[in-house]
Amino acid sequence: MALASPKRKTTTATKKTAKSTSSKKATALPKGQLPVKELEKEERKETKMKLKILLVASECSPYAKVGGLADMIFSLSRSLAKLEHEVKVIIPFYSVIDKSLYNIRFLGSACVHMGCNCEHWIGLHEASLDGNIPLWLVEYADYFNRRGIYDESGREYTDNAYRFGMFSKAVLEICKEMGWIPDIFHVNDWQTSLLSVFLKIWPNLLSPFKKSASLLTIHNICYQGKYDAMVLPYLGIDWKLFTADTFEDYGQINLLKAGIVYSDFITTVSPTYAKEILEPIGGAGLSEILRKRADTLMGILNGVDMKVWNPKIDPLIPVNYDKTDLKGKLLCKEALQEKFGLRKAPNIPIVGMVSRLHVQKGISLLKSILKEALATEDFQFVLLGEGEKEFEDFFRTLSMEFSGKAASFIGFSEELAHLIFAGSDFFLMPSLYEPCGLGQLYAQIYGTVPIARATGGIVDSVLDIRQDSSGTGFLFHQPEATALLEVLKTALGLWKNNPQLIQTARINGMGKNFSWEESAKKYEEIYTKIVQKKYSSITSHNPHNPYLSASLFP
Ligand code: ADP
Ligand code: GLC
Questions:
Q1: Closest ligand 2 atom to the C-alpha of 71?
Q2: Where does the chain bind ADP-alpha-D-glucose (predicted)?
Q3: Is residue 552 part of a domain?
Q4: Residues spanned by the domain of 340
Protein backbone atom coordinates (compact mmCIF):
# COMPACT_ATOMS: atom_id res chain seq x y z
CA MET A 1 0.00 0.00 0.00
CA ALA A 2 1.32 3.42 -0.90
CA LEU A 3 1.71 5.61 2.12
CA ALA A 4 2.41 9.23 1.40
CA SER A 5 5.40 10.63 3.19
CA PRO A 6 3.96 11.76 6.52
CA LYS A 7 2.89 15.34 6.22
CA ARG A 8 4.05 17.01 9.38
CA LYS A 9 2.78 20.42 10.18
CA THR A 10 5.20 23.23 9.63
CA THR A 11 6.46 25.01 12.70
CA THR A 12 4.20 27.93 11.97
CA ALA A 13 1.15 25.73 11.68
CA THR A 14 1.97 23.98 14.91
CA LYS A 15 2.42 27.28 16.65
CA LYS A 16 -0.86 28.53 15.28
CA THR A 17 -2.78 25.50 16.49
CA ALA A 18 -1.23 25.62 19.91
CA LYS A 19 -1.90 29.31 20.11
CA SER A 20 -5.52 29.16 19.15
CA THR A 21 -6.14 26.26 21.52
CA SER A 22 -4.36 27.93 24.38
CA SER A 23 -6.38 31.06 23.89
CA LYS A 24 -9.55 29.03 24.39
CA LYS A 25 -8.25 27.05 27.35
CA ALA A 26 -6.14 28.59 30.04
CA THR A 27 -4.41 25.30 30.92
CA ALA A 28 -0.75 25.57 30.14
CA LEU A 29 0.79 22.68 28.25
CA PRO A 30 4.35 21.50 28.64
CA LYS A 31 6.46 22.89 25.83
CA GLY A 32 5.93 21.07 22.55
CA GLN A 33 2.89 19.14 23.75
CA LEU A 34 -0.46 19.45 22.03
CA PRO A 35 -3.87 18.84 23.58
CA VAL A 36 -5.37 15.40 22.92
CA LYS A 37 -7.69 16.63 20.16
CA GLU A 38 -4.85 18.29 18.35
CA LEU A 39 -2.71 15.20 18.72
CA GLU A 40 -5.49 13.19 17.11
CA LYS A 41 -5.58 15.66 14.26
CA GLU A 42 -1.82 15.35 13.90
CA GLU A 43 -2.10 11.57 13.76
CA ARG A 44 -4.82 11.77 11.15
CA LYS A 45 -2.61 14.01 9.05
CA GLU A 46 0.31 11.69 9.42
CA THR A 47 -1.72 8.73 8.24
CA LYS A 48 -3.10 10.52 5.18
CA MET A 49 -2.65 7.92 2.50
CA LYS A 50 -1.82 8.55 -1.06
CA LEU A 51 -4.23 6.09 -2.59
CA LYS A 52 -4.32 4.28 -5.89
CA ILE A 53 -7.89 4.73 -7.00
CA LEU A 54 -9.51 3.13 -10.01
CA LEU A 55 -12.87 4.53 -11.04
CA VAL A 56 -14.66 1.75 -12.89
CA ALA A 57 -17.67 2.81 -14.89
CA SER A 58 -19.67 2.34 -18.05
CA GLU A 59 -19.50 6.04 -19.01
CA CYS A 60 -17.03 8.89 -18.73
CA SER A 61 -17.23 12.39 -20.19
CA PRO A 62 -16.39 13.44 -22.79
CA TYR A 63 -15.65 10.00 -24.30
CA ALA A 64 -18.91 8.16 -23.71
CA LYS A 65 -21.91 9.86 -22.15
CA VAL A 66 -25.55 8.95 -21.77
CA GLY A 67 -26.31 10.96 -18.64
CA GLY A 68 -24.91 12.40 -15.43
CA LEU A 69 -22.84 9.32 -14.56
CA ALA A 70 -20.34 10.31 -17.27
CA ASP A 71 -19.93 13.82 -15.88
CA MET A 72 -19.62 12.54 -12.33
CA ILE A 73 -16.81 10.12 -13.21
CA PHE A 74 -14.89 12.77 -15.12
CA SER A 75 -15.12 15.42 -12.44
CA LEU A 76 -14.59 13.11 -9.48
CA SER A 77 -11.42 11.80 -11.10
CA ARG A 78 -10.14 15.35 -11.51
CA SER A 79 -10.95 16.30 -7.95
CA LEU A 80 -9.31 13.19 -6.51
CA ALA A 81 -6.21 13.82 -8.58
CA LYS A 82 -6.12 17.34 -7.13
CA LEU A 83 -6.08 15.73 -3.69
CA GLU A 84 -2.88 14.05 -4.85
CA HIS A 85 -4.13 10.52 -5.22
CA GLU A 86 -3.07 8.29 -8.08
CA VAL A 87 -6.25 8.05 -10.11
CA LYS A 88 -7.16 6.11 -13.20
CA VAL A 89 -10.50 5.61 -14.91
CA ILE A 90 -11.52 2.54 -16.88
CA ILE A 91 -14.47 2.15 -19.26
CA PRO A 92 -15.26 -0.07 -22.24
CA PHE A 93 -13.85 1.05 -25.59
CA TYR A 94 -17.20 1.55 -27.32
CA SER A 95 -17.06 2.05 -31.06
CA VAL A 96 -19.20 5.17 -30.55
CA ILE A 97 -16.16 6.88 -29.06
CA ASP A 98 -14.92 9.27 -31.71
CA LYS A 99 -11.28 8.21 -32.06
CA SER A 100 -10.42 11.20 -34.21
CA LEU A 101 -10.95 13.52 -31.25
CA TYR A 102 -8.51 11.92 -28.84
CA ASN A 103 -4.99 10.74 -28.54
CA ILE A 104 -5.40 7.03 -27.86
CA ARG A 105 -2.57 4.52 -27.73
CA PHE A 106 -2.59 0.75 -27.63
CA LEU A 107 -1.03 -0.73 -24.50
CA GLY A 108 -1.37 -4.45 -25.10
CA SER A 109 -3.74 -7.36 -24.82
CA ALA A 110 -4.81 -9.67 -22.05
CA CYS A 111 -6.79 -12.83 -21.67
CA VAL A 112 -9.93 -12.69 -19.56
CA HIS A 113 -10.94 -16.03 -18.11
CA MET A 114 -14.66 -16.32 -17.69
CA GLY A 115 -16.49 -19.38 -16.40
CA CYS A 116 -17.17 -22.47 -18.57
CA ASN A 117 -13.57 -22.33 -19.83
CA CYS A 118 -14.48 -19.30 -21.85
CA GLU A 119 -11.58 -17.00 -22.71
CA HIS A 120 -11.68 -13.58 -24.30
CA TRP A 121 -8.69 -11.67 -25.61
CA ILE A 122 -9.22 -8.02 -24.94
CA GLY A 123 -7.21 -5.01 -26.05
CA LEU A 124 -6.19 -2.30 -23.62
CA HIS A 125 -5.84 1.28 -24.82
CA GLU A 126 -4.94 4.41 -22.96
CA ALA A 127 -6.21 7.93 -23.41
CA SER A 128 -6.27 10.73 -20.90
CA LEU A 129 -8.64 12.94 -19.00
CA ASP A 130 -7.74 16.54 -18.49
CA GLY A 131 -4.31 15.81 -19.92
CA ASN A 132 -2.96 13.88 -16.96
CA ILE A 133 -5.42 11.28 -15.67
CA PRO A 134 -5.04 7.98 -17.50
CA LEU A 135 -8.23 6.65 -19.02
CA TRP A 136 -8.05 2.95 -19.79
CA LEU A 137 -10.29 1.71 -22.56
CA VAL A 138 -11.14 -1.97 -22.79
CA GLU A 139 -11.64 -3.18 -26.32
CA TYR A 140 -13.69 -6.23 -27.15
CA ALA A 141 -15.38 -5.88 -30.51
CA ASP A 142 -18.15 -8.46 -30.03
CA TYR A 143 -19.44 -6.61 -27.01
CA PHE A 144 -18.61 -2.98 -27.58
CA ASN A 145 -18.61 -2.39 -31.34
CA ARG A 146 -22.24 -1.40 -31.43
CA ARG A 147 -24.25 1.66 -32.26
CA GLY A 148 -25.28 2.25 -28.65
CA ILE A 149 -23.87 1.93 -25.17
CA TYR A 150 -26.68 0.08 -23.43
CA ASP A 151 -29.34 -0.04 -26.10
CA GLU A 152 -30.20 0.64 -29.69
CA SER A 153 -33.42 2.17 -31.02
CA GLY A 154 -34.87 2.06 -27.53
CA ARG A 155 -34.16 -1.66 -27.08
CA GLU A 156 -31.74 -2.82 -24.44
CA TYR A 157 -29.04 -5.22 -25.66
CA THR A 158 -30.07 -8.67 -24.48
CA ASP A 159 -26.51 -9.65 -23.57
CA ASN A 160 -25.77 -6.73 -21.23
CA ALA A 161 -25.05 -9.05 -18.31
CA TYR A 162 -22.42 -10.78 -20.47
CA ARG A 163 -20.98 -7.51 -21.78
CA PHE A 164 -20.57 -5.75 -18.46
CA GLY A 165 -19.84 -8.95 -16.54
CA MET A 166 -16.88 -9.59 -18.83
CA PHE A 167 -15.82 -5.95 -18.55
CA SER A 168 -15.83 -6.13 -14.74
CA LYS A 169 -13.68 -9.24 -14.79
CA ALA A 170 -11.40 -7.74 -17.43
CA VAL A 171 -10.69 -4.78 -15.14
CA LEU A 172 -9.18 -7.11 -12.56
CA GLU A 173 -7.16 -9.05 -15.14
CA ILE A 174 -5.83 -5.77 -16.53
CA CYS A 175 -4.76 -4.43 -13.14
CA LYS A 176 -3.01 -7.70 -12.46
CA GLU A 177 -1.28 -7.74 -15.84
CA MET A 178 -0.29 -4.09 -15.60
CA GLY A 179 1.02 -4.57 -12.08
CA TRP A 180 -1.12 -1.68 -10.95
CA ILE A 181 -3.05 -2.83 -7.92
CA PRO A 182 -5.54 -0.21 -6.76
CA ASP A 183 -6.19 0.39 -3.09
CA ILE A 184 -9.73 1.29 -4.11
CA PHE A 185 -11.95 -0.03 -6.83
CA HIS A 186 -14.72 2.55 -7.05
CA VAL A 187 -17.48 0.85 -9.04
CA ASN A 188 -20.64 2.51 -10.30
CA ASP A 189 -24.14 1.16 -10.78
CA TRP A 190 -25.09 -2.38 -11.79
CA GLN A 191 -22.86 -2.41 -14.84
CA THR A 192 -19.70 -2.64 -12.76
CA SER A 193 -20.95 -3.79 -9.36
CA LEU A 194 -19.97 -7.38 -10.19
CA LEU A 195 -16.37 -6.33 -9.74
CA SER A 196 -16.95 -6.11 -5.98
CA VAL A 197 -18.15 -9.70 -6.08
CA PHE A 198 -15.17 -10.94 -8.11
CA LEU A 199 -12.88 -9.13 -5.73
CA LYS A 200 -14.24 -11.06 -2.78
CA ILE A 201 -14.43 -14.47 -4.38
CA TRP A 202 -11.00 -14.34 -6.05
CA PRO A 203 -9.02 -17.25 -4.48
CA ASN A 204 -8.10 -15.59 -1.28
CA LEU A 205 -4.54 -16.36 -0.30
CA LEU A 206 -3.06 -15.76 -3.72
CA SER A 207 -5.13 -12.75 -4.55
CA PRO A 208 -3.13 -9.74 -5.63
CA PHE A 209 -6.16 -7.74 -4.54
CA LYS A 210 -6.13 -8.87 -0.97
CA LYS A 211 -5.54 -5.34 0.20
CA SER A 212 -7.91 -3.67 -2.25
CA ALA A 213 -11.25 -2.36 -1.03
CA SER A 214 -14.36 -1.62 -3.06
CA LEU A 215 -16.85 1.18 -2.98
CA LEU A 216 -20.09 1.07 -4.94
CA THR A 217 -21.88 4.26 -5.92
CA ILE A 218 -25.56 3.89 -6.74
CA HIS A 219 -26.51 6.55 -9.26
CA ASN A 220 -30.00 5.23 -9.87
CA ILE A 221 -31.47 2.37 -7.91
CA CYS A 222 -34.20 1.73 -10.45
CA TYR A 223 -31.65 0.26 -12.85
CA GLN A 224 -30.51 -2.94 -11.19
CA GLY A 225 -29.31 -5.25 -13.94
CA LYS A 226 -31.82 -8.06 -13.55
CA TYR A 227 -31.12 -10.92 -15.93
CA ASP A 228 -31.65 -14.58 -16.55
CA ALA A 229 -29.67 -16.60 -14.01
CA MET A 230 -28.23 -18.74 -16.79
CA VAL A 231 -25.46 -16.16 -17.14
CA LEU A 232 -23.97 -17.24 -13.78
CA PRO A 233 -21.78 -20.07 -15.16
CA TYR A 234 -20.38 -17.68 -17.79
CA LEU A 235 -19.56 -15.21 -15.04
CA GLY A 236 -17.84 -18.03 -13.18
CA ILE A 237 -20.11 -17.57 -10.19
CA ASP A 238 -21.10 -20.62 -8.24
CA TRP A 239 -24.78 -21.54 -8.13
CA LYS A 240 -24.50 -21.64 -4.35
CA LEU A 241 -24.46 -17.83 -4.46
CA PHE A 242 -27.81 -17.82 -6.19
CA THR A 243 -29.68 -17.14 -2.98
CA ALA A 244 -32.01 -14.39 -1.84
CA ASP A 245 -29.33 -12.74 0.28
CA THR A 246 -26.89 -12.33 -2.62
CA PHE A 247 -27.76 -12.64 -6.31
CA GLU A 248 -31.27 -14.02 -6.53
CA ASP A 249 -34.25 -11.75 -7.11
CA TYR A 250 -37.57 -13.36 -7.99
CA GLY A 251 -35.84 -16.09 -9.97
CA GLN A 252 -33.46 -13.78 -11.80
CA ILE A 253 -30.05 -12.47 -10.88
CA ASN A 254 -29.79 -8.90 -9.64
CA LEU A 255 -26.34 -7.44 -10.21
CA LEU A 256 -26.83 -4.26 -8.19
CA LYS A 257 -28.08 -6.26 -5.25
CA ALA A 258 -24.98 -8.46 -5.34
CA GLY A 259 -22.85 -5.31 -5.50
CA ILE A 260 -24.61 -3.94 -2.43
CA VAL A 261 -23.91 -7.14 -0.53
CA TYR A 262 -20.27 -7.50 -1.57
CA SER A 263 -18.93 -3.94 -1.68
CA ASP A 264 -17.03 -2.63 1.32
CA PHE A 265 -18.94 0.63 1.28
CA ILE A 266 -21.91 2.04 -0.58
CA THR A 267 -22.58 5.62 -1.50
CA THR A 268 -25.30 7.29 -3.43
CA VAL A 269 -25.33 10.69 -5.03
CA SER A 270 -27.20 12.86 -2.52
CA PRO A 271 -28.02 12.75 1.20
CA THR A 272 -31.79 12.86 0.57
CA TYR A 273 -31.65 10.00 -1.93
CA ALA A 274 -29.64 7.99 0.61
CA LYS A 275 -32.65 8.25 2.93
CA GLU A 276 -35.21 7.65 0.17
CA ILE A 277 -33.67 4.36 -0.95
CA LEU A 278 -33.97 2.95 2.55
CA GLU A 279 -37.76 3.18 2.21
CA PRO A 280 -39.76 0.57 0.30
CA ILE A 281 -40.87 2.94 -2.49
CA GLY A 282 -37.52 4.65 -3.01
CA GLY A 283 -35.56 1.42 -2.69
CA ALA A 284 -37.25 -0.26 -5.67
CA GLY A 285 -37.14 -3.66 -3.96
CA LEU A 286 -33.68 -3.23 -2.45
CA SER A 287 -34.51 -1.19 0.65
CA GLU A 288 -34.39 -4.20 2.94
CA ILE A 289 -30.96 -5.32 1.80
CA LEU A 290 -29.75 -1.72 1.98
CA ARG A 291 -31.01 -1.32 5.52
CA LYS A 292 -28.76 -4.20 6.50
CA ARG A 293 -25.87 -2.09 5.19
CA ALA A 294 -27.13 1.21 6.59
CA ASP A 295 -23.97 1.76 8.64
CA THR A 296 -21.89 1.60 5.47
CA LEU A 297 -24.16 3.74 3.30
CA MET A 298 -23.74 7.45 2.73
CA GLY A 299 -25.18 10.09 0.40
CA ILE A 300 -22.66 12.49 -1.13
CA LEU A 301 -23.94 15.24 -3.39
CA ASN A 302 -22.36 15.40 -6.84
CA GLY A 303 -20.73 18.67 -7.77
CA VAL A 304 -20.26 20.83 -10.81
CA ASP A 305 -17.01 20.75 -12.72
CA MET A 306 -16.37 24.48 -13.00
CA LYS A 307 -13.88 23.92 -15.79
CA VAL A 308 -16.59 22.52 -18.03
CA TRP A 309 -19.81 24.05 -16.72
CA ASN A 310 -19.04 27.67 -16.14
CA PRO A 311 -20.63 30.54 -18.11
CA LYS A 312 -17.58 32.69 -17.53
CA ILE A 313 -15.28 30.47 -19.59
CA ASP A 314 -17.59 28.03 -21.42
CA PRO A 315 -16.31 27.79 -25.03
CA LEU A 316 -19.58 26.20 -26.18
CA ILE A 317 -21.75 29.27 -25.61
CA PRO A 318 -21.78 32.29 -27.93
CA VAL A 319 -21.00 34.88 -25.24
CA ASN A 320 -19.51 34.39 -21.80
CA TYR A 321 -20.93 36.09 -18.74
CA ASP A 322 -20.99 36.04 -14.97
CA LYS A 323 -23.24 37.29 -12.22
CA THR A 324 -21.72 40.76 -12.25
CA ASP A 325 -22.71 41.29 -15.86
CA LEU A 326 -25.57 39.37 -17.39
CA LYS A 327 -25.53 41.03 -20.81
CA GLY A 328 -23.90 37.91 -22.23
CA LYS A 329 -26.77 35.79 -20.96
CA LEU A 330 -29.23 37.90 -22.90
CA LEU A 331 -27.17 37.37 -26.05
CA CYS A 332 -27.17 33.63 -25.37
CA LYS A 333 -30.95 33.84 -25.11
CA GLU A 334 -31.09 35.54 -28.48
CA ALA A 335 -28.84 32.87 -29.97
CA LEU A 336 -31.02 30.14 -28.48
CA GLN A 337 -34.16 31.68 -29.94
CA GLU A 338 -32.50 31.90 -33.31
CA LYS A 339 -31.12 28.37 -33.22
CA PHE A 340 -34.50 26.89 -32.35
CA GLY A 341 -36.54 29.14 -34.65
CA LEU A 342 -38.32 30.91 -31.83
CA ARG A 343 -39.52 34.50 -31.98
CA LYS A 344 -36.71 36.80 -30.89
CA ALA A 345 -38.19 38.48 -27.86
CA PRO A 346 -36.07 39.32 -24.82
CA ASN A 347 -39.09 39.82 -22.57
CA ILE A 348 -40.68 36.44 -23.12
CA PRO A 349 -39.29 33.89 -20.69
CA ILE A 350 -37.77 30.73 -22.10
CA VAL A 351 -38.40 27.52 -20.19
CA GLY A 352 -35.65 25.09 -21.17
CA MET A 353 -35.16 21.39 -20.63
CA VAL A 354 -32.24 19.02 -21.26
CA SER A 355 -33.22 15.54 -20.30
CA ARG A 356 -33.31 11.86 -21.01
CA LEU A 357 -36.90 11.32 -22.11
CA HIS A 358 -37.84 8.77 -19.55
CA VAL A 359 -40.65 8.34 -17.01
CA GLN A 360 -38.15 9.11 -14.21
CA LYS A 361 -37.84 12.66 -15.50
CA GLY A 362 -41.56 13.40 -15.04
CA ILE A 363 -42.17 13.59 -18.78
CA SER A 364 -45.65 12.10 -18.41
CA LEU A 365 -46.62 14.91 -16.03
CA LEU A 366 -45.29 17.46 -18.44
CA LYS A 367 -46.98 15.82 -21.37
CA SER A 368 -50.36 16.23 -19.77
CA ILE A 369 -50.05 19.96 -19.05
CA LEU A 370 -47.66 21.44 -21.57
CA LYS A 371 -50.12 22.11 -24.36
CA GLU A 372 -52.51 23.81 -21.97
CA ALA A 373 -49.69 25.91 -20.54
CA LEU A 374 -48.43 26.91 -23.98
CA ALA A 375 -51.95 27.84 -25.05
CA THR A 376 -52.65 30.03 -22.04
CA GLU A 377 -49.32 31.42 -20.83
CA ASP A 378 -46.84 33.76 -22.43
CA PHE A 379 -43.55 31.80 -22.63
CA GLN A 380 -41.35 29.84 -24.98
CA PHE A 381 -40.38 26.21 -24.49
CA VAL A 382 -37.17 24.52 -25.65
CA LEU A 383 -36.27 20.88 -25.22
CA LEU A 384 -33.20 18.78 -25.93
CA GLY A 385 -33.57 15.10 -25.26
CA GLU A 386 -33.92 11.58 -26.48
CA GLY A 387 -35.35 8.40 -25.08
CA GLU A 388 -38.73 6.75 -25.16
CA LYS A 389 -40.40 6.92 -28.54
CA GLU A 390 -43.75 8.02 -27.14
CA PHE A 391 -42.12 11.09 -25.59
CA GLU A 392 -39.95 11.85 -28.59
CA ASP A 393 -43.06 11.82 -30.81
CA PHE A 394 -44.90 14.11 -28.41
CA PHE A 395 -42.19 16.78 -28.52
CA ARG A 396 -41.83 16.52 -32.28
CA THR A 397 -45.53 17.21 -32.83
CA LEU A 398 -45.53 19.91 -30.15
CA SER A 399 -43.00 21.90 -32.13
CA MET A 400 -45.27 21.75 -35.15
CA GLU A 401 -48.38 22.70 -33.21
CA PHE A 402 -46.75 25.62 -31.40
CA SER A 403 -44.34 26.72 -34.06
CA GLY A 404 -42.29 29.75 -32.99
CA LYS A 405 -43.27 29.13 -29.36
CA ALA A 406 -42.07 25.59 -28.66
CA ALA A 407 -39.15 23.80 -30.23
CA SER A 408 -37.25 20.62 -29.63
CA PHE A 409 -34.18 18.78 -30.78
CA ILE A 410 -34.50 15.04 -30.44
CA GLY A 411 -31.00 13.67 -30.10
CA PHE A 412 -27.84 14.20 -28.11
CA SER A 413 -25.77 17.36 -28.38
CA GLU A 414 -23.34 18.67 -25.81
CA GLU A 415 -23.22 22.02 -27.59
CA LEU A 416 -26.98 22.52 -27.56
CA ALA A 417 -27.12 21.47 -23.92
CA HIS A 418 -24.73 24.27 -22.97
CA LEU A 419 -26.68 26.75 -25.06
CA ILE A 420 -29.96 25.81 -23.37
CA PHE A 421 -28.49 26.10 -19.88
CA ALA A 422 -27.10 29.52 -20.79
CA GLY A 423 -29.92 30.95 -22.90
CA SER A 424 -32.99 29.87 -20.93
CA ASP A 425 -34.62 31.80 -18.10
CA PHE A 426 -36.10 28.79 -16.34
CA PHE A 427 -34.97 25.16 -16.29
CA LEU A 428 -37.69 22.56 -15.98
CA MET A 429 -37.03 19.35 -14.08
CA PRO A 430 -40.28 17.70 -12.97
CA SER A 431 -38.54 14.45 -11.97
CA LEU A 432 -40.58 11.75 -10.25
CA TYR A 433 -37.37 10.79 -8.51
CA GLU A 434 -33.88 12.19 -8.89
CA PRO A 435 -30.88 10.58 -7.20
CA CYS A 436 -28.83 13.76 -7.60
CA GLY A 437 -29.59 15.55 -10.82
CA LEU A 438 -26.94 17.62 -12.49
CA GLY A 439 -29.33 19.63 -14.64
CA GLN A 440 -30.59 21.77 -11.77
CA LEU A 441 -27.01 22.35 -10.61
CA TYR A 442 -25.81 23.49 -14.03
CA ALA A 443 -28.92 25.65 -14.44
CA GLN A 444 -28.21 27.56 -11.23
CA ILE A 445 -24.59 28.19 -12.16
CA TYR A 446 -25.77 29.55 -15.54
CA GLY A 447 -28.33 31.85 -13.88
CA THR A 448 -31.28 29.80 -15.10
CA VAL A 449 -33.91 29.41 -12.44
CA PRO A 450 -34.93 25.78 -11.81
CA ILE A 451 -38.59 24.83 -11.66
CA ALA A 452 -38.27 21.38 -10.21
CA ARG A 453 -39.85 18.68 -8.13
CA ALA A 454 -38.60 18.43 -4.55
CA THR A 455 -37.10 14.96 -4.61
CA GLY A 456 -33.67 13.39 -4.02
CA GLY A 457 -30.74 15.62 -4.88
CA ILE A 458 -33.05 18.46 -5.93
CA VAL A 459 -34.08 18.85 -2.28
CA ASP A 460 -30.40 19.11 -1.36
CA SER A 461 -29.56 21.71 -3.99
CA VAL A 462 -32.54 23.98 -4.69
CA LEU A 463 -34.23 26.24 -2.18
CA ASP A 464 -37.62 27.74 -3.05
CA ILE A 465 -37.35 31.52 -3.44
CA ARG A 466 -40.93 31.87 -2.21
CA GLN A 467 -39.87 30.50 1.16
CA ASP A 468 -36.47 32.02 1.57
CA SER A 469 -34.86 35.13 0.16
CA SER A 470 -31.69 33.14 -0.45
CA GLY A 471 -33.68 30.73 -2.64
CA THR A 472 -32.68 29.85 -6.18
CA GLY A 473 -35.74 28.24 -7.73
CA PHE A 474 -39.30 27.00 -7.56
CA LEU A 475 -40.22 23.63 -6.12
CA PHE A 476 -43.36 21.53 -6.26
CA HIS A 477 -43.93 18.51 -4.09
CA GLN A 478 -46.71 16.22 -5.24
CA PRO A 479 -45.79 14.16 -8.31
CA GLU A 480 -48.92 15.38 -10.03
CA ALA A 481 -49.56 17.25 -13.25
CA THR A 482 -51.73 19.87 -11.51
CA ALA A 483 -48.93 20.68 -9.07
CA LEU A 484 -46.52 21.09 -11.97
CA LEU A 485 -48.90 23.36 -13.87
CA GLU A 486 -49.45 25.45 -10.77
CA VAL A 487 -45.76 26.03 -10.07
CA LEU A 488 -45.08 26.78 -13.72
CA LYS A 489 -47.86 29.37 -13.79
CA THR A 490 -46.61 30.87 -10.53
CA ALA A 491 -43.06 31.24 -11.83
CA LEU A 492 -44.26 32.74 -15.13
CA GLY A 493 -46.60 35.08 -13.25
CA LEU A 494 -43.74 36.30 -11.08
CA TRP A 495 -41.58 36.83 -14.16
CA LYS A 496 -44.16 39.38 -15.25
CA ASN A 497 -45.23 40.84 -11.93
CA ASN A 498 -42.16 40.56 -9.73
CA PRO A 499 -39.10 40.42 -12.00
CA GLN A 500 -36.91 41.47 -9.10
CA LEU A 501 -37.68 38.21 -7.32
CA ILE A 502 -36.69 36.20 -10.37
CA GLN A 503 -33.51 38.22 -10.66
CA THR A 504 -32.72 37.51 -7.00
CA ALA A 505 -33.19 33.77 -7.54
CA ARG A 506 -30.99 33.95 -10.63
CA ILE A 507 -28.16 35.76 -8.85
CA ASN A 508 -28.44 33.56 -5.78
CA GLY A 509 -28.09 30.50 -8.00
CA MET A 510 -25.03 31.86 -9.75
CA GLY A 511 -23.41 32.45 -6.39
CA LYS A 512 -23.87 28.86 -5.19
CA ASN A 513 -20.83 26.73 -4.61
CA PHE A 514 -21.39 23.28 -6.05
CA SER A 515 -17.70 22.64 -6.51
CA TRP A 516 -16.49 19.05 -6.22
CA GLU A 517 -13.91 19.90 -3.61
CA GLU A 518 -15.98 19.08 -0.53
CA SER A 519 -17.59 15.98 -2.00
CA ALA A 520 -14.26 14.60 -3.19
CA LYS A 521 -12.93 14.99 0.35
CA LYS A 522 -15.84 12.92 1.62
CA TYR A 523 -14.98 10.16 -0.84
CA GLU A 524 -11.37 10.40 0.22
CA GLU A 525 -12.35 9.96 3.83
CA ILE A 526 -14.39 6.86 3.07
CA TYR A 527 -11.70 5.35 0.85
CA THR A 528 -9.12 5.82 3.59
CA LYS A 529 -11.39 4.30 6.20
CA ILE A 530 -12.20 1.18 4.21
CA VAL A 531 -8.62 0.65 3.08
CA GLN A 532 -7.42 0.93 6.67
CA LYS A 533 -10.14 -1.44 7.81
CA LYS A 534 -9.23 -3.97 5.16
CA TYR A 535 -5.57 -3.68 6.01
CA SER A 536 -6.10 -4.14 9.72
CA SER A 537 -8.46 -7.07 9.18
CA ILE A 538 -5.88 -8.97 7.14
CA THR A 539 -2.92 -8.10 9.35
CA SER A 540 -4.80 -9.15 12.46
CA HIS A 541 -5.82 -12.35 10.71
CA ASN A 542 -2.31 -13.32 9.71
CA PRO A 543 0.43 -10.85 10.53
CA HIS A 544 3.06 -13.07 8.90
CA ASN A 545 1.30 -13.48 5.61
CA PRO A 546 4.06 -12.94 3.04
CA TYR A 547 1.56 -11.63 0.51
CA LEU A 548 0.91 -8.57 2.64
CA SER A 549 4.36 -7.16 2.47
CA ALA A 550 4.83 -7.15 -1.27
CA SER A 551 2.60 -7.14 -4.25
CA LEU A 552 2.65 -10.35 -6.24
CA PHE A 553 2.74 -8.30 -9.39
CA PRO A 554 5.04 -5.41 -8.63
P1 ADP B 1 -29.43 11.67 -15.61
O2 ADP B 1 -28.06 11.25 -15.35
O3 ADP B 1 -30.45 10.95 -14.80
O4 ADP B 1 -29.79 11.67 -17.05
P5 ADP B 1 -28.55 14.29 -14.66
O6 ADP B 1 -29.30 15.55 -14.47
O7 ADP B 1 -27.74 13.81 -13.55
O8 ADP B 1 -29.60 13.20 -15.14
O9 ADP B 1 -27.52 14.43 -15.87
C10 ADP B 1 -27.92 14.63 -17.15
C11 ADP B 1 -26.69 14.99 -17.94
O12 ADP B 1 -26.89 14.57 -19.27
C13 ADP B 1 -26.47 16.49 -18.01
O14 ADP B 1 -25.09 16.73 -18.21
C15 ADP B 1 -27.26 16.89 -19.25
O16 ADP B 1 -26.78 18.06 -19.82
C17 ADP B 1 -26.96 15.69 -20.13
N18 ADP B 1 -27.96 15.37 -21.16
C19 ADP B 1 -29.15 14.75 -21.01
N20 ADP B 1 -29.75 14.61 -22.20
C21 ADP B 1 -28.94 15.17 -23.11
C22 ADP B 1 -29.01 15.35 -24.53
N23 ADP B 1 -30.03 14.91 -25.22
N24 ADP B 1 -27.98 15.97 -25.14
C25 ADP B 1 -26.92 16.42 -24.43
N26 ADP B 1 -26.79 16.29 -23.11
C27 ADP B 1 -27.79 15.66 -22.45
C1 GLC C 1 -28.08 9.11 -12.50
C2 GLC C 1 -29.20 9.86 -11.82
C3 GLC C 1 -28.96 11.33 -11.69
C4 GLC C 1 -27.53 11.60 -11.20
C5 GLC C 1 -26.55 10.91 -12.12
C6 GLC C 1 -25.09 11.14 -11.71
O7 GLC C 1 -28.17 9.13 -13.87
O8 GLC C 1 -30.44 9.64 -12.49
O9 GLC C 1 -29.87 11.90 -10.77
O10 GLC C 1 -27.29 12.99 -11.18
O11 GLC C 1 -26.77 9.54 -12.11
O12 GLC C 1 -24.83 10.67 -10.42
A1: 6
A2: 65
A3: no
A4: 327-510
